[in-house]
Amino acid sequence: MKSRIRGEVVAWLGLLVTGTVPGTGSAAVPPIPAGLPKYDLQLTIDPKSHTADFQLLVTWTNRTSVPTQSLVLNFYPHYEIPPENRLLLAKTLELLRLHPSYGMDVRGKHGILRAINLLQLRGRPGHGGLLPYHYQRGNSAAIVVDLPEAIAGGESVTLELLGNIRLANKQGRWGHWDGVTYLTNALPVVAYYDRDGWHETPFVPWHQPFWNEAGIYTATIRLPRDHLLACSATVDSESIGVDGFREVRMKPFVGRDFAVVCSQRFQLFESAVKLPDERTVQLRCLAFPEHAYYAKEILRIASEALPVYSRWFGAYPYDQFTIVESFFGWNGNECSGMILIDERVFGMPHTAVGYAEYLVSHETCHQWWYNLVGTNGYSETFMDEGAATYFTHRFLDRKLGKNNAFLNWPRGLAWLPNIQRENYRYASYQGAIRRGDAPAAAGDLPEFGHLIGLFSGAYDRGSKVFGMIEHRLGEAAFFDFIQGVVKKYSFEVLTAATFRQELESYTGQPWVDFFERWVYGKDLTDWAIVSVTSHRQLPSAVRAEPAGIPRPHPRRVEVVLEQKRELDEATVVGFQFAEGDGYPVRIPVGPSHQEIRLAEYQAEVVPLGPGKVRVQATLPEEPIQVAVDPEGVLIDANPGNNRWKNPPRVQLVPFYSMLNETDLTNDYDRWNFGAGPWLGGALYPDPWYTRSTMIGVRAGAYRTQVFTGGVYVAARTDYRDLVFGVDGLLDHWPWPRTQVGWNFERRLAGPIGIAEKDHSPNRAVVFGRYVFEYGSSLYLPPISYADLYSTYQDNFLPVTRTNVPGVIRPNSFWVTGLHYRLNLYTPYWDPERGIWLDLAYAGGVADLESTVGTHQLRGEFAAVRALPIEHPYLSAVKAAGRLVLWGAVPDRGQFFALGGGTLYRGFDLAERQGSFLWVVNSEIRWPLAMNVRWDALDHFVGVRDLYLASFYDVGAIYAHGKSVGGVAHALGMGLRADLAIFSFIERAVVRFDVGKTINAATPIQFWFGIQHAF
Ligand SMILES: [Zn+2]
């Protein structure tokens, strides 16, 4: 082994001495800058022992004039999750709908460096002596190598790094999962060095904190002969070694990283595309055979994107582009010459091609904005994510039309909820704006707090920055500028400051203000149309009309505009005369104190006081629409007020459900009204009451991050009656983190099949909520919040079978209370660990034959934990427990029932009732099948995990100071199916429980529910 390495070292040094720079074989590709780091890699991947052994020769040349006596490398697999970051990371994986235990490796430190040898220093051989090095304090992914002499400008050093990477059974950048082995951003790479010294970035596992020079790579990869290899570089030659391993020699490659993915399960799908410079790029997709549909679609999408981006930015630099299926939880990941697409994207319903179009086009765009033009991914991730997001939407606007749908429903099902691209793009940013925490575009990754913050800042705001630059320069100049920048910074690093300087030298204008406002600032603009009036132009101002030809009469149109937010940014007012005419008449406006007069259209823009302007123009005919910033170029806090006419979207559908009332399925910038036959209800308990599953008809109104609500007539399945109901939630009102909600239900008919009719279950609640911590679920309330509520309720409990003398059934009560909830179950649909705390107090009046005062207290504490045992089966077993205490006065009232599907599962609601109860639940969830793909309905829904639950519930209820029937013990079993809805959009558990009280002659109870009982 050692002698073989030495031989190769000599060959490598020979390459250095001759100064040969491996090229990419085409004149069309950008020249490779002098002095880039060189890496020569010998890699052996052994999926059996789950290790990757490497010998890496690194040559670093000091490209600055500032000498350094150390060399700093980033070696990300040496990262270890700090304990204080575990919850944030678990919640990030939950947001991605991945079980944290699948992607989070609390052990960490899988990258092991055995030795660093000095091979060459300042042109002299280093005799292979060992070099001292240490991991940096506070940055466990940074290696500092102490050199015996300083490296001055133009001088170089060559090191030999020997080490290995343990490939844990975790999804992510390095590891193995379901037969796929991956090593991305895993090999040591020299940190970025400039006149200010080394810039080793800390590892941030929830994004790409990478900041390094492109490298020149040569590599030999050894892997089992039955594994297909996906790699940044192209295969040069291969042979089978005596140990049966395949030895693959790669052609020299220049890129930002060097990624390797391999699997026995892969099938190779291929195609090719011709670029504008007549070069042909081979397209390869390595995916599972069962994912052939998306493999072919993804090849098509890439083949459509590469030529366009090549035209926009400059030629794609390689003769090969690889797309590989892997397991990492987020949907797509860029590497050099290669992109990774998550297995769950390949497993999407086939109708979701529109989403694949977006995702693959975005990741492909990173071949320019990340790989070719390098960025500081730790502090300025918007420089690649903002660019990739902006150019991808620009590309898709032209290819598929503005705001195309992600889901391609079959004919006749077009009424099903769909996700339009603009709604997908802007809904979560609207949330950030309404919450008042929309961040700046640039900033260190940890400053964004979490992935949603980063999306709002670097992606959403960052993409708008690129759009505003295009708007200021005009299309032709913008692309001239962009092509120049890409050419100049190919295989180099472009910082935001340098980008600004390039803009300044291209335009001859200062751009400091623009960057301060839009890149580094958080402020927003909000142009709004206040009014539009028009009248026929006076004949004197109009040229004579030719006789006999009827012409539309010119109109003098007056538009009053208001700019309501901090940033008074210039824009245009556009006038539309026919649907889709692109607003042919445009008048510049702003800043709002600016007076503007144009000869064309006799236009005048007159300031009307703070933020307001009046625009007057003579137009050839009456406009059908007037819009300020018609293309949505600006970062506008409320795009819903930018149009004169903003009619709501109205839909009558044959089936209406909670999917019709989400941010993703509604237009983000206007009111949405829908109605139809309805299946609905809440999937979580509220302190006032739990809403029943309902079947009926509903008319709903929705405005993204503003309002959701409706009216309905429906059968309540829990009470077998028919009700009229109203519900609503005003979000971010009256303050950014508060909500006001209500529900009212009045019985119209029923109950059916229940004899007693002495009570009439009407109920109502109004609540105000403060949100401490938002969650990511589409169907659950926030992680942590407090409510102030007032509720009136008739008695919903069935009449009890176990009567205690002197105890009275309340007819109704009206109480006002406070409630606090903390739900740290992670992931929320099938927790691996976490606690749940629920506390409520309410006081008011109850009708106990006469109206009396009442006070009610409720407390609940629950915890779940996967067994802390390192074992493939036992570590997936979960134990859950809960303590419930409820009490109310006066104690002669029957306020609570002991039984129920989410309380004591051995009794129904009628069995025992009283005024004080305690329950202790304990449950073990035994995996029957884990990580399966039992899909139905074109992968629309599928089982991922199946559990058998065994439980023991114990509790007692008291009335009038006496126990009702004593302490009850119940044993039971259940089934839990963890469902994936639309692959990675949402997750939920469906539950079936059978319980029996063992110390009472009561019937077996059957319960069905969504989510675990506690
Ligand atoms: Zn991206």
Q: Which descriptors apply to this entry?
A:
eight-stranded mixed sheet, 1014 residues, alpha+beta, 19-stranded mixed sheet, 41% strand, binds zinc ion, 54 strands
Description:
The protein is an alpha+beta fold and about 1000 residues long. Helix content is about 15%, strand content about 40%. The protein contains twelve helices and 54 strands. The chain has a 19-stranded mixed sheet that branches. An eight-stranded mixed sheet has the order 5-4-8-2-1-14-17-16, with helices on one face. Strand 1 (about 40-45) and strand 2 form a beta hairpin. The model is unreliable at about 1-25 (pLDDT under 50). Bound molecules: zinc ion. Zinc ion binds near residues 366, 385 and 388.
Number of strands: 54
The biggest sheet, with number of strands, parallel, antiparallel or mixed sense and barrel status, is: 19 strands, mixed
Estimate the global geometry from the Cα principal axes: globular
Helicity level, as a percent range? Answer: 10-25%
Q: pLDDT below 50 for ≥5 consecutive residues: which ranges?
A: 1-27
Oligomer: single chain
On the 0 to 100 scale, the average pLDDT is 93
Overall radius of gyration: 33 Å
Structural class: alpha+beta
- Which molecules other than protein and nucleic acid are bound? zinc ion
Q: N- to C-terminal separation?
A: 57 Å
Query: Count of helical segments?
Result: 12
User: Beta fraction of the residues?
Assistant: 35-45%
